[in-house]
Structures are given as C-alpha cells and as structure tokens.
Amino acid sequence: MTLVHDAASTAAARDCVVRMKLDPAPTAMVWVQPGQKHEPIAVPTVSLAVGDALVAIELATICGSDVHTTQGHRSAPTPLVLGHEQVGRVVAVGAGAVTSTGAPLEVGERVVWSLTIGCDTCDTCIRGLPQKCETVKKYGHERLEAGWELSGGFASHAHVRRGTAIVPVSRSLPAATLAPVSCGTATAVAALDAASVVTPLDGAVVIVFGAGLIGLTACAIANDRGARVIVVDPARGRRSLAARFGAAATADPTLEAGEPGSLETALDEIGTRPLVAIEASGSVLAVASAIDSLGIGGVAVLVGSVSPSAAVPLDPEAIVRRLITLRGVHNYAPRHLEEAARFVEKRHDVYPFAELVGATVALGDLDDGIEAAAGGGAVRIGVAPGLDPVKPVTQTG
Known about the structure:
Helices cover 25% and strands 24% of the residues. It is of the alpha/beta class. The protein is globular.
C-alpha cells in the first residue's frame, strides 16, 4: 500500500492531524439490517489525529455478538462496520501514538487493541473502568461516520483512535491464536480477576458454564493458576475440547441428576463444592445453576448475559446464609488485554488456541463466514482481507 500525504496535511500539521491518501484504498464491509448482505466501501483518505494509528488487518474473527447483531437479536446503530476481534500491523501513526504501557507505537509492530475507547479523564475512567467511560466508543459497534469509516474489524484496515489500549504481540504466532485476544480472551482474564478478589484460585474448584471462547480460555487460565475446573456445556464436541484446555471434569446440563455425565455427578466426583463459578453462556438456567452450585463464601461471575433475557429466580436468604458474592463483568480494562496477550503467547503450545478458529473466509465472503459462525461448529470463523481483493462499490472520503 502506498501512503501519500495530502497537500492539506501541511496545514493540518499545525493541528497535529495527518491526512493521507492511500492506494489502493482500504475497504470496509458495511452492515445495514438483518437479511441484507454487507456492502463494501472504499475509504481512500484517512486522517490520523494525535494518538491515532492506522493498522492493516491480518485476520479478524467473528464473535457471537456479531452473529446476534446480524440476526436482529441485538440492537445496533446502522449503518456500521462490525467486528472487534482482530490482529494487524501498524502502517501509520499520528503524533504521540503509544502502546498500552506508554511506549511509542512504531510502524511495523504487530498489535491487538481494546474493544473500547476511553477518555482517561471522566470519573469512570479514573476509577479504573475505562470500558464504561462516560463517552465510550466501541469498535464494531458504532454508526458509520465520516472520518472514522474504518471503525470495525471487518475491513482491510482499522483506524485505531487515541484512548484505545494497543498491545504489541508476537510476530511469529499464528494470527488465529492472536485475533480473538481482544474480546473473548481478555474478557476471560477480567472474569477470573473479578473472582480472585473474593477467593484465591489456587486449590479451588472452578465451574465454568459455556465452552465457547471465554469459557475455554477461563478454563485454561484457572487450570494454570492451580484450580480444578469443571466445564458445563450441552455440546459433546465442546466438552471434549474443554478437556484439552485443562478441564478436570465436564458435564452435560441436559442430563438428569444421577446420570453419568450430569452436573451433579461431576460435582460428586470432584468431592467439594466450587468456590468460583464463571457463567459464560448467557443461559438463564446456567446463571441459576452457577449460583446454586457454589459452596460457602463462593463467587459467581456473570459474563455471558449481554442481551435481554428472562429474569433469574433468586433466593436472597440462600445468598446471605451462604455468603455468596455475585459479580458482573462486561468487557475489560487495558491490563486484562495485556495479560491475555502474554498468556496466549506463553501458553499457546499447551492449549490449542489456534484450533478454535475454523474456516477462514475472504473479506468479500463475510456473509458466508457469518452464516458458518451461526452454525455453531467452530468456536470462531476467521475473516482474512488478504485472501482476495474486494472491489468497492461505493467510495467515501
């Protein structure tokens, strides 16, 4: 790709804005409504403000929330560029662009970046919750706007804005290992961090509901920290996968108590009640089971309930008498993304993270990829802009 600084950039430099014309123009896939295919647009001009960066996307992965949005199960401002799990290489930087640790961001670095953009100055950011910034913006979740068309992962490039945690990653690991780090992997780290505030993981029994990306990663991390992990999922293939991610036992929640392979049987075989429950499926029944399964002083961390659902029956007396803690985790802070990246880099040879990404489609075949992701076979489906060129039908900028 050729970067040509616009003549106007000289004047813009006074305001520390770098305006570039790119050849060939980056492409973004725009979603409008359920039942309508994505449309590619070309974005030939990108303006990088202070702290911004332009990243060429190597691989993106399709998250369950992307599927739910395209199916109409989640509200979203349209038109928008979906996608928020990706890895790529920095091709241009604005003045003062830095990594999550404050080091200068360099062209050529391979990076992942946070789902959210914080301001660093509001009360919520100062409290250490930038994912809930009062002016938060989220990659893959914002309405398409002039000047920030490259706002999601389903594109050839991403315009990464100031206030985003940017984490350099290994140049040698497979992209399939790294792309999901910026969503499911970092969220799993945040969930276990929330649990660890209440009780140590070392020596504890941890029960994980849902063997998707978050659940499997939480299983691996908890196992590394000395916990014995039970993974609960109705899909036999996912339970088998959980064993490869360190699960000491698995259970099928559809089986009746007393049946081999049931949750109750797994708990009996472990011999003690869990002190930590991670609910990563969003199922109302799983939420109730997560709370009910805990021993005295246990903590249930709810991660999967990110869309409207029925209410969960709650026995407040049981919560009080058993000293149960309930915690909600939504997204994550920069430190969780950093820890997630380092964990995958160090432990990719122990746990099969790369195998979680099944088929990989070209950017132009994104709708086929989303259909495959909705089928639930692979934990993730990949989207690779480099597989084939996409001819834009509309131009912006």
